[in-house]
Every structure is written in structure tokens, then in C-alpha cells.
Amino acid sequence: MFKFADQQTVRRVVRALPPVGVGIYYGIPQTRAASLYSPRQLFQKSTMTHRWQKGEVSNFQYLMFLNTIAGRSFCDLNQYPVFPWVLTNFESDTLDLTDANNYRDLSRPIGVLNPTRHAQFLERYASWDENDDIPPFHYGTHYSTSGFTLAWLIRVEPFATQFLNLQGGKFDHPGRTFCSIIRSWNNCQRDTSDVKELIPELYYLPEMFGNSNNFTFGIDDDGIVIDDVELPKWASTPEEFVMLHRAALESKHVSAHLHEWIDLIFGFKQKGPEAEKATNVFFHLTYEGNVDLDSIADPIMREAVEQQIKSFGQTPSQLLHDPHISRMPPEPQNIEEEEPFKSIYLTFKVTGDVPVTHVAANTDSTVPSPAVVTISCNQCFSVNKWLTSADLKQSLRGVQVEQDPMLATSAGRQKRQLGEPLDQSVTPCACCFVVTADNKHIMACGYWDNSFKCFSADSGKLTQCVFGHWDVVTCLAYSRHVGLTGGDAFVVSGSRDATVLVWRWSMRFQRVAASDRAEGDNPSPLAILTGHEQPVVCVDVSASLGLVVSGSQEGPCLLHTTTGNLLRTLRGPGECVRPRLLKLTRDGLVLVNYTDGTGHLAVFTVNGRLLSDKGLDDQMLALALNKDGNFFVSGGFSRYLRVWRTHDLCLLHTYPPCDGSIRALTISTDQRCLVAGLASGSILAIAVNFPGRL
């Protein structure tokens, strides 16, 4: 983060830098002009509001967008991102996310929820002396200050050190230390000096609730030692609290009312007459534009005003003067969707009796040619057209996949072959192949020349050989994220040489290339990931998280950043040392299948904590996560498709046996269809609706 003396300097710097804009993920042009847009202009020109309204963007993502363009940043404790309290029930044994009584009224400020306290704030405002130099306000404190942020995050670094620096090297009085979710909620309902909202970490960072650094916070007035944060009864672990808290933020109830809270914090009720009506007026120095610091000539006076602003907190930039639009309600549910696993099947042969080892279902309507792509163990592939229907019920009643017509003739089958045979020591499996998000290219590994190769999905022609490893490439992974330049993607390759390489797939050049130019057939990797001592057998990558997880033949699994930094070593539970399958969820959980014994599953947090593990009676051959990572589907030699809940590995449903062992799995982009590749040479498509509740 940079702080410049004036706007003129900002303009000179922007002109000197490349045209980076503010991030194409927000739908804002990547231009120098965009870097100089005001917060309100950024809001108006972005596509995020429209995408959120249609349900394409989560509530969490949308709130982060609003915070970002309104000047809030993780780099500035005085203007840290602000999130709402959404729940009021922190005392019951269970939490029903469908019960509206468990949610906070998002149309009212936090200080108004308690009628008694509301009356006190109204009286303060009404009795204000008209001759006072300070304009009247309801709240003398703020919902977001650097002190509040540090108090929330006091158990994790670097915030603990920042807190000690603020407090002269000592932690706060134990009675004021954040130690309980219930107590914090009650305080901001009763104490007239506490109207704080939340920070994003309460929706994604379980580590903030545990005293893993063993800080000594003292003993409170009740004689209780302050250590880990006391959680609600309905959450047995910090991970479970974060999962349920995040689910509450994304619930139908919050989605239907979040725009009302946005009006208070970022919108037309932030200041002025509407703020007065809503009991939402804060100390005048908290508002942008109320003080012209450049006009204060006295440096001592200016510093005093700046410190006062920091002490009182800062209100975000106002983004709109009219009511924010509401989110569209979800599409109506039909009878079959009320029973998630009452599904319809569609199956057909792809390549005779040759096992299908990889399936991809890039079926989004934005893809030029939505299709289910299959690859068999003889390296024959098929591109089966996905037929969409505008009628929701019809698309669920009959999954529509049109078999690849090229397989009907010998000439057509020749255009569906992925080059020369794989190295004789390689057994083709799902991790040997990836299909790009637009269904235009297929990447394959396992070749004797230590390369992985790119093929056109239209003609089957070899388009690129990528070299970088010193031994046979054994596994590939692909992850696309719209935040990358031009919709590019990360490709990750693992090899018997015990290394993992990170590459960039260029949408512009339709090949593995450097970020700014095509490099022929020999591009350089973005990063070389080391740490394994044995052949790498499985990898996964998340572009949005910037993480790569990899497993070697005899373990362990390693977690790296996409830039090459080793973060964690994930060691299997008990005797588990042989990982076969890896998946990295959107929220940073790592799912690992081990081949030891009859099979084993384990799920870790991104920080290396083992959340759950379970022994299996069937060797898994395929795993597929749903979009949000809360559920996954498995299949293997036993021919059973099973649906699991991710965080606790709870088995939710087992489908009737298929007509062959399950070698590959994927889930369609719209999450309505599960596609399995079978050893019998068939693909099986199942209409599925993942449970709405965790």
C-alpha cells in the first residue's frame, strides 16, 4: 500500500505504471483511467452488483467488493473491511439456518436493535446543544476502528504484536479482551460505547479463536482464565463455527436483506437526512470530506486531527445515493429437488469396453461449445455436446447429452486420439489429463520424453509440447480464475523427478505461455515447487487461493503457494503414507485419499490441522467436489457412487451400483449433474441436487 502527498502525485504514478486498473474480476476495464475512478464511479461501472443480484457472486465476495472500492483494505487497520453481524442466536444447542428468528434485522444499525439503548441514542441526538461546534451524532464511537480490529484478532500474528505496540507492550484488561462470541454480541447490544460490526475473518479464519501462541491474557472478574474464545453451543470447534457462520451469511434470509445493511454502511442511509431517520449518525470526523486536511497549515494541529480520526474510526466512502437493489430470489424448487438424491440416470457407451479414465463437464452457457469431454485409457477422447434447456424442471427430468458423432466413423476416431502411447510404466488415470475451461484443448501427461502435451479438442492435433521436468510427468491439474489476466489459468504438473511446476495457460494464445507473450514450445514455468523426496503422484491447484497441494508416492503431502513458497507439510493420520487423490476446496480445506490398507480419507485445514479422517472399505479411484466444496462425490472399484459432507466426512448417500468400477468423476458447471466415467466404457450422468443444509 502506498500513501501519496496529493492527487497530482497519484496521477503521475498511475501514468508511469502499466494499465492495471483495479482488477478485471470486478468487470472494470483494465485501464489507467480506471485507476483514477472515484469509489462511486467504480461502483457504477462494475458488473459485480448485477452478478450478485443474479446469484453469480456470493454475499461474501460482494461485501469484499464493496469494501475494496470504498477504500477499505486489509493493509490499513484504520479502514479495515467491515462485515455485518447476521445472527442473534449464540446460545442454543443447535442452529437452524432456515429460521428467520435466528437472524439480526439488517435494516437497522447495530445500535438500534436494543429498544432501550435505541431510546438513549435518540435522546442524546435530540438534546444536542445547537450552539455546540460539534454537529450532533447518535454514536460517539464507531462500528470499525483499528482498536476493534486488533481486539478481534488478538490471538494471531501480526495483530497481537500490533496490539502490544498500541497498548505499551501489555495486553488489555482481561475483562475487555475478546474471549466469547456470546459476550461480544451481548456487549454490543447493551453497552452504549459498543456498536461494532464484524470483520471478514469471522467468516473464514478459525485460527483467530484459538490461543495457539499461548499468550497470557490474565483472569477476568469471574475468575476465568482467558484463553481460547468461547464458542456458541451449536459449534463444537472453531472450524464448525466458521462454516456455519459463513453458511448463515450466504443463507436465503441474509441474501434477501443484505441490501438493507449496505444502504446503512455504503449507501443512501450513510449520512444526511436518511441517516438521521435511521438513527445512523456518527461523529462528524468519521465521514469522508468533512475535514480538509490540506487546509490545516499547522503540522501539530493536523497531526492531532489525524489522530482523532484514527481514534473515532472512519466511515467508508459513500457508493450510492439511492436504495441498493435487492437480490433476486432463487429459482423455485420443484418436487424432485426437495429430495436431493432422488435422481434420474442417463448412460451410454463412449468407446466400447475401454475404461473411461477422465471426464470434464464444462457446461456453462458462456462456453462456446458446452460439452462433456471423456478420455479413455487408450487415449481416445470424445466431445459430447451438452444440450441446455431454459426450463429448469425439464433439464432435471432429462439430462441431455448428445454423443460425439466423430466416433461413428474410423476417420472420425482418428481425430479423437491423443498422440502416441504413454510410457509403458504409466497407468492412465484421471490425473493424467485436464480439459481447458472452454473445451477447446486437452492436456495429457505420462509420455516417455518427460513432457506434457496439448491437443486440439476439435481435430485431435498436437498443438504444443511442454518440457521442464527431468523425468516422466505423472499428474496434471488446472484452475481458472477470472481474476487472472484475460481469464488465464494455472496449470500444475507433477513428476517422478519429485518436483512440481506451475505454468500459465494463456487464453489469448491458447497455449502454455509466459504472461505477456507466447514462448513457442518451450515456455518457462512460473514457479518450481520443491520439497518432495519421492515421485509426485497427485496434485491440485486453486487459482483463487493461490495454492498448490501435492502428494508423493510415500507421502507426505505439501502445500505451496503458486509462487513457490512451501507453507505446510500434511502428514497422514496413523499409518497413512500413500496419497492417491487430492482436492483443494474453495475455502482452503484439503481432502486426501490414501491407498493404505483398504483406503482412508482425511481432511485438513489450509494451516495443517487434521479435521477428520475415516477408514474405507473400498479403494477410491475418483473424487469430485461441488462448487463451494461443502460436499464431494467418490467412486471406486466397488461400483458405488457416494456423496459425502466435506468437513466431517459424513456419508450422506450411496447410489445403487453402476455397471462397472468408477474411474472418473466430475460435476457440471451448473451443479445439476454428476458425470461418472466407468470401466465398462460408459459414462453415467445423474441429475443431482446437493443438500442446502450442512
From TrEMBL:
- Report keywords, A-Z: Repeat, WD repeat
Q: Which GO terms describe its molecular function?
A: protein kinase binding
Repeat is among the record's keywords: yes
Q: Which Pfam families match?
A: Beach, NBCH_WD40
- The protein's name: BEACH domain-containing protein
Q: Cite the InterPro entries for this sequence.
A: BEACH_dom, BEACH_dom_sf, BEACH_Domain, NBCH_WD40, WD40/YVTN_repeat-like_dom_sf, WD40_repeat_dom_sf, WD40_rpt
Domain BEACH as annotated: residue spans: 37-327
Recorded source organism is: Desmophyllum pertusum
Taxonomically, the superkingdom here is Eukaryota
The Gene Ontology biological process annotation of the record reads: intracellular protein localization
The record's listing under PROSITE patterns reads: BEACH
Q: Which Gene3D superfamilies match?
A: BEACH domain, YVTN repeat-like/Quinoprotein amine dehydrogenase
Entry-linked CDD domains: Beach (cd06071)
Tagged with keyword Repeat = yes
Instruction: Provide the Gene Ontology terms for cellular component.
Output: cytosol; membrane
